[in-house]
């Protein structure tokens, strides 16, 4: 289906699942090479990253661990500018190689907050893997952003974990708002 409605908003197809899968396979290969001989700890940022993280770690063939944190900053299509911490970081971060897994980096506010929290716990290294990045929306400089699936325009997207008012996370493809 190429046009859909989620609540009151119209969306059109943007990135099909097959395109996502191919890119995620390549991201996994790159991580396998970069972390050879190490045991990275993937930290998924809930809720949006759950499908991406699941598909990404299936491509990882080195030893690794998986954990989650939960923060929230968005209501509808706009950032509240305030980060709420709902599930905290795991205890065992000191000395670990951390890979934060995000569905999307938009303004960069969420990630900046999470990176600060993680760096306070003395990890060996911290990198970020985000499926999507909106370069035109970015307000913070994020040096740790090492693995990016797709750079996209500054448009609201939904599907494959990303929501609009809590809906649409279950869509297999990613759609963009048409503004109609
Ligand atoms: O770069 P930013 O402007 O901070 O936006 C990116 C963040 O916004 C979304 O999370 P949200 O707070 O909507 O929670 P969710 O993952 O539960 O949807 C998304 O999953 C990122 O974590
Ligand atoms: O474009 C978006 N879609 C869904 N959630 C988001 N969180 C930040 N940007 C977005």
Provide a compact summary of the structure:
The protein has 3 helices and 10 strands, in the order E-E-H-E-H-E-E-E-H-E-E-E-E.
Structure, explained:
The two termini are 17 Å apart. The protein is an alpha/beta fold and 180 residues long. The strands form two sheets. It has a six-stranded mixed sheet with strand order 5-4-3-6-7-8, sandwiched between helices. It has helices spanning 17-34, 50-57, 109-119; strands at 3-6, 9-15, 41-46, 65-75, 78-87, 97-105, 125-133, 145-151, 157-158, 174-177. The mean pLDDT is 93. The chain has one domain: Rossmann fold (3-Layer(aba) Sandwich), CATH 3.40.50. The radius of gyration is 16 Å and the shape is globular. The structure holds 1-O-pyrophosphono-5-O-phosphono-alpha-D-ribofuranose and hypoxanthine. Residues 74, 104, 106, 156-158, 162-163 line the site of hypoxanthine. 1-O-pyrophosphono-5-O-phosphono-alpha-D-ribofuranose binds at residues 45, 47-48, 72-74, 79, 102-111, 163. Keywords: Cytoplasm, Glycosyltransferase, Magnesium, Metal-binding, Nucleotide-binding, Purine salvage, Transferase. Its EC number is 2.4.2.8. Residues 19-164 form the Phosphoribosyltransferase domain.
**Beta-strand content:** 35-45%
Question: Can you give the mean pLDDT?
Answer: 93
Given the C-alpha coordinates, what overall shape results? globular
What are the bound molecules? 1-O-pyrophosphono-5-O-phosphono-alpha-D-ribofuranose, hypoxanthine
Q: What's the helix count? A: 3
Distance between the termini: 17 Å
- Major beta-sheet overview: 6 strands, mixed
Report low-confidence residues grouped into runs of 5 or more: none
In helices, the fraction of residues equals 10-25%
Strand arrangement within the widest β-sheet reads 5-4-3-6-7-8
What's the architecture, going by CATH? 3-Layer(aba) Sandwich
Overall radius of gyration: 16 Å
Number of strands: 10
What is the third-level CATH name, the topology? Answer: Rossmann fold
Elements, N to C (H/E): EEHEHEEEHEEEE
- Helices and strands: which structural class? alpha/beta
Instruction: Look at the structure and give the CATH class.
Output: Alpha Beta
Overall tally of domains: 1
């Amino acid at each position: 289906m190429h046009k859909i409605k989620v609540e009151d908003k119209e969306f059109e197809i943007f990135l099909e699942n097959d395109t996502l899968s191919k890119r995620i396979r390549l991201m996994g290969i790159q991580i396998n090479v970069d972390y050879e001989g190490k045991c990275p700890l993937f930290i998924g940022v809930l809720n949006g990253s759950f499908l991406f993280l699941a598909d990404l770690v299936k491509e990882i063939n080195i030893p690794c661990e998986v954990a989650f944190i939960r923060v929230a900053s968005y209501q509808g299509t706009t950032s509240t500018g305030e980060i709420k911490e709902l599930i905290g970081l795991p205890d065992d971060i000191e000395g670990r190689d951390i890979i934060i897994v995000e569905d999307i980096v938009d303004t960069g506010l969420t990630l900046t907050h999470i990176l600060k929290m993680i760096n306070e716990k003395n990890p060996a290294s911290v990198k970020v893997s985000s499926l999507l990045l909106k370069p035109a929306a970015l307000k913070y400089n994020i040096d740790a952003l090492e693995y990016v699936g797709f750079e996209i325009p500054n448009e609201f997207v939904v599907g494959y974990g990303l929501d609009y008012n809590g809906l649409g996370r279950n869509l297999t493809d990613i759609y963009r708002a048409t503004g109609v």
